[in-house]
Amino acid sequence: MLRQKIACCAPRLLPRYAPTRYLALFLAVWLSVFLFTRGLLWLTHLDEAQVGALAVARLFLFGALYDLAFLVYAALPLALYLLLCPRDWWQARWHRRILTALFALLVFLMLFVATAEWLFWDEFGVRFNFIAVDYLVYSKEVVDNIVESYPLYRLLAVLAILAVAITLALRPVLAASFAAPPGPENLPRRAALKTLFGLCALAVINALLIGQDFPLSAGGNVYQRELASNGPFQFFAAFRNNELDYAQFYATLPDQQASALLRAEVAEPNARFLSDAPFDIRRRIDNPGPEQRRNVILVTVESLSARYLGSFGDTRELTPKLDQLRQESLFFNNFYATGTRTDRGLEAVTLSIPPTPGRSIVKRIGRESGYASLGQQLAARGYDSAFIYGGRGYFDNMNAFFSGNGYRIVDQSSVPDAEMHFTNAWGMADEDLYRQALKQADADAASKRPFFFHLMTTSNHRPFTYPDGRINIPSGQGRAGAVKYTDYAIGEFLAQAREKPWFANTVFVFLADHTAGSAGLEDLPVTNYHIPLFIYAPGFIAAREVDTLTSQIDLAPTLLGLLGISYESTFFGRNLLLDNAQPGRAVIGNYQHLGLFDGHDLAILSPRSNLRLRRDALRASEEQTTTLSDPLIARAIAYYQGASYAFRMGLISWRECSFVGNRCSGLF
């Protein structure tokens, strides 16, 4: 009976001619899927969205605009074919069967995209963005991760069954479309020209609207804006936003003013600037005392949020080894990541530079090498600088970046299978990575060469799998187990290192690349950037806690200061352990929004010269628009305008200098 009613009513609900009927049905189904996805995400995140009745209406209104914006482009290829399809093809049975199969395939694709959006939101708390673009590039790791994390094949089978069921349910409507007249002989040409002209006009208007990010005018918190967005739209827009020219999209100050502010930010009592050029912060750093030729093992731990440490109040007791290490280390309890991705953490630790908008420097292929990195500084002093990664270093362009900036590479592809006891989608287990570090350290110690190893772990990442029998949480059960395994592996690593003859002369540094989650009600939720930093060297560095607000960009100058190394610096960070150091601050950002946190307030710079200030940022979420005259805004602009200029003009490049006193005598 229902099928008869659909068959009866369908002709009155669809356009007159068959090709446009088919296209309209395709668009209607896709819009329905978009509406269902948005509604489901909204219903399952009511607390985070915090929306009233008016906000809900606005959310779905702007959401519909986003959906239509995407469908204008998605419909162009199909519309072109349908409107130019010959009449005899349209009336042929084989052609109708192909179009029916195509419809089922498109429905499957719609359902697949909706499911992928759900899973992506579950992981990152947002719609598709530049992370999804990057994941598509590194498909092997991502596909392996999905297969290990979810019942992928069963999920695909369910989606295929649903697609066929929906197609069968809509068969009367499809039949009504095929039964409609294809139109007079001259219709295809005339309709094609008119329709294509209309779609192209909409595409141009769309591009202008996209340039203004029109749905963002809906206001509200981040969850509301993300719910109003459209996943496929966001995915393709991410290609456009992977690199943003700071001067074109963000507020700027006159070069001389911004440069003077930046110099004031990076000035230290033991620093002397070597140039008067705008934004050239290259300076001679004279650290007191004799240079300490200590080995350094620096470990960036995947997604280790500060809140996971039991000593920060977590009652799950997941990190007993790290909690004990906190008591034995120089521990920074007010330390912040610069970004939300591994490549941002590596960029900040290695180059000591704020996050420039768009891609990190690590991933700017063809422009990722030749910089004055921490590894270059130590390699120039005879250190064996190496980047040791638990995964495959082509991911996120890591190998190209590190090999181009003073490091040799040890990654999963260079480790014999016999030395890897457990692997998953992202690479070898942390304990296998640490074994490689011990092996490399033994070799350098035997040759009496100091070493600097920068390790990057992988185990604290979905699918959260690790060797069995190590901890009391089964592998693959979630983040808690991965954190506890991370803690276990670090404890075992240090226990084994203590047995080595080189241990007493080695500085161990442990920090996170970023936190486990960056989503929140605000564009830049400050608490979601809080990570731990341990500097452990018993007998050399006294254990104590540092309350000073500190950023990942401060690690390199602080470490070189602890080692008593004098050097030529292009770093934007400072040694915050100096007795007369300036008050701390933290630079935080994502691929679009850039912030400067002074411990109380947060300045936020956004595209289209949007300036905002969040007072009491650790507790309050309300923001106010502000102007260039605000001192914190001006300081933030100085950092980011200066970093973008320095990157573009090559002011952070490496040069080897022979120093005579405090003067660089040139290349040698």
Give structural attributes.
alpha/beta, single chain, 668 residues, disordered C terminus, 5-stranded antiparallel sheet, 46% helix, 9-stranded mixed sheet
Overall description:
It is a single chain. The protein is an alpha/beta fold and 668 residues long. Helices cover 46% and strands 13% of the residues. It is built from 23 helices and 21 strands. Strands 3, 4, 5, 6, 9, 10, 11, 12 and 13 form a 9-stranded mixed beta sheet that branches. The protein has a 5-stranded antiparallel beta sheet with strand order 15-16-17-18-19, with helices on one face. A hairpin with a 2-residue loop joins β20 and β21 (663-664). α15 crosses α23 (631-649). It is globular.
User: Per DSSP, what share of the residues sits in E-state strands of 2 or more residues?
Assistant: 5-15%
End-to-end CA span: 88 Å
- Judged by helices, strands and strand pairing, the structural class is alpha/beta
Gyration radius from CA atoms, angstroms: 28 Å
Oligomer kind = single chain
Q: Helicity range of the residues? A: 40-55%
Number of helical stretches of at least 4 residues: 23
The mean pLDDT is 84
Q: What is the tally of beta strands?
A: 21
> How would you describe the shape?
globular
| Main β sheet profile | 9 strands, mixed
Low-confidence stretches: 10-15, 184-188, 210-218, 658-668
